[in-house]
Design brief:
It is a single chain. This protein is α+β, with helices and mostly antiparallel strands. It has 2 domains: 13-75, no CATH class; 114-192, no CATH class. Helices cover 24% and strands 21% of the residues. The chain is built from 4 helices and 9 strands; from the N terminus they run E-E-E-E-E-E-E-E-E-H-H-H-H. It has helices spanning 134-144, 150-170, 176-183, 187-192; strands spanning 13-19, 24-28, 36-40, 43-44, 50-51, 57-64, 69-75, 117-118, 131-132. The protein has a 4-stranded antiparallel sheet, with no helix packed on it. A hairpin with a 2-residue loop joins strand 3 (36-40) and strand 4 (43-44). Helix 2 (150-170) crosses helix 3 (176-183). The longest helix has 21 residues, at 150-170. The chain is rod-shaped and about 105 Å long. The mean pLDDT is 80.
């Protein structure tokens, strides 16, 4: 079957057919030990009828007759490395990037989210790349409500709280931070930022 792109280089088989000389026992072919089928005149030989252990020669236990057709099928091995089983799970030792987002439940413990959080009661850094902790938001609102912008700040805080709370109710597996990150992608966030 034709296809566009590079040809298959792994997971294939190679078939070599030899016409034997009288009493010929050795046939040279490259293979992965344990992954060959040997046929003599169309009949599959049992593994006891030949030796194929060195990866470069197949040796018949009994010499072939003159003009016997010896067909050797060498199955090429391939392996997929550096994978984590979907059924058994596993451990990633390096960083994981999911530019398209993550779908499904995330379980386990997040080892380091400090690069994405900010714990600052006065929000002085005005960092738009980090999420404030609940304690920081509360401290900030409690402090700011004492000045003339109290109604606006209070309305914004209530809006944020209600939207994040709604997102969490719709996605019970989400943490507060994840729900806030979802909120930051909404039009309501654009209106207040």
């Amino acid at each position: 079957m034709p296809y566009i792109g590079q040809g298959l280089t792994e997971g294939r088989r190679r078939v070599e057919t030899f016409i034997a000389t009288a009493n010929q026992t050795t046939f040279n072919i490259i293979y992965d030990a344990g992954y060959v089928d040997v046929y003599q005149n169309g009949i599959l030989l049992a593994e006891a009828d030949y030796t194929a252990t060195n990866g470069s020669q197949v040796v018949l236990a009994v010499g072939a007759a003159l003009n016997d057709e010896i067909t050797i099928i060498a199955h090429q091995l391939f392996s997929v490395t550096d994978t984590v089983s979907a059924a058994q799970g596993g451990t990633f030792t390096g960083a994981i990037t999911a530019s398209g987002g993550v779908v499904g439940n995330i379980t386990g413990q997040v080892s380091d989210i400090s690069n994405h959080l900010i714990d600052e009661d006065n929000m002085a850094s005005n960092d738009d790349t980090k999420v404030p902790s609940q304690q920081s938001v509360k401290a900030y609102v409690d402090t700011e409500v004492q000045d003339k912008d109290k109604p606006y700040v209070l309305r914004v805080a209530e809006l944020i709280y209600s939207k994040v709370d709604k997102i969490k109710k719709e996605n019970s597996e989400m943490t507060n931070i994840q729900a806030f990150e979802v909120f930051m992608t909404t039009k309501d966030y654009d209106l207040i930022s």
